[in-house]
């Protein structure tokens, strides 16, 4: 997200090195970005813990991720307008405060509904941290140092997938799930004090109007539609009003938004940009890819926790190879994106991801960890060579005045894709697990029948339950085999979606093109690229 009229344009630095003043500002932004990005991956290993703690289905607890990403998508377009209106420093500190308060409230949640609500509040703050941070740093560094700037902001992007699951697993093992949120409180307070001292004083000015009507249609529409989809496994049929009613209302609101969005001068999402063929191809490629990759990403820790009976810390360590793979290829992909057309590199990166997913479609209850970690590493290599080049392709052909709107459009599509992916994968997995055979004569404390897979997963996580439910060991083995197959079947869906991504990726540009990223109109601020998170 960019800001266009907060202050007068600053002189372009003569050196491309980041001086002390810029690094001081960068420290604030990196601190906020680490909190926001780590929080997404930290929570991913806690989903099975939430299931046990709140006695909720996987589809239900997945809303702790879906609600957060939907909140991010809601405030991304709001951030640029509000920064113009109220000032970047002031708004950045409000975002930090919202995120920190939301984190504290998450730790106090007594029900899964409360936790989801507080995660939405947390997401409203987290969604503004990255776009505002990019605007602040681009203004401090100037357009000629954007390359070095992106390298600095790449630190939290790489720390997230590596450190998040490990930190979350460790905190849950040595303390409790509450600490994955409480850890944000001291960091948030330090960041607030640092921001007050380090960020330059605001000089806000009025800017273009904000499309409140569009926001009131799109955000509730997406939330209602995904809520209906996520309710399907628990209800068991589309005929139930709790499924079709929110889906129908949500779809109607989204369609109404699409029709309406061509009327305002400054719509929430400028869908007119899809007339640019290369932006369209890049956006479609990214959207399909994100649904598959982000959705399946939630399943990896759940497989290690529920089927293999690993601790949350061990699950985090087992997922780390994916982040290490991305760390190796992301800098290389960033350099290649300026020299080699993305249409010549992204398909090969996608093939690496497809190879990794193919391994997980064959997973069972005893698949060697060396094979699984190797597959995750290969997928990470592909991930590092996919996201940033696609983003570069999406924005490269836009002219100066279009970049802010294009950044908003692509970033929101990324968040929506993540939300759709989380909902679809959780629905698939829950539906597969629910088809497990019930154990005759065995019920839970509420009198509900317990399935073979359900008991096997419970015993893996809490071995003492084996004494309460005296069943043959072969039944537990059969249940684990069924659960592993449920994960494998869900990975087949993700595998198919990544294969589908190859179709739009084949239309990505295969010839070099001039970048318009810094082609600003007279009197405008330099346009900041948007970092995906």
Overview in brief:
With about 525 residues, this protein is mostly helical.
Any overview of this molecule?
GO terms for molecular function: transmembrane transporter activity. The two termini are 13 Å apart. Residues 1-14 and 517-533 have low confidence and may be disordered. 72% of the residues lie in helices and 2% in strands. The chain has 533 residues and is mainly α. The protein is built from 21 helices and two strands. α4 (63-86) packs antiparallel against α18 (400-434) and α14 runs parallel beside α16. The chain has three domains: 18-199, MFS general substrate transporter like domains (Growth Hormone, Chain: A); 213-262, no CATH class; 270-513, MFS general substrate transporter like domains (Growth Hormone, Chain: A).
What brief labels describe this structure?
disordered N terminus, transmembrane helix, MFS, mainly alpha, two-stranded antiparallel ribbon, Growth Hormone, Chain: A, EmrB-like, 2% strand, 2 strands, 72% helix, 3 domains, 533 residues, membrane, transport, 21 helices
CATH superfamily of the largest domain: MFS general substrate transporter like domains
Quaternary structure annotation: single chain
- Could you name the CATH topology of the largest domain? Growth Hormone, Chain: A
CATH class label of the largest domain: Mainly Alpha
Mean pLDDT score: 78
Relative strand content:
under 5%
Secondary-structure element order, N to C: HHHHHHHHHHHHHHHHHHEEHHH
General form: globular
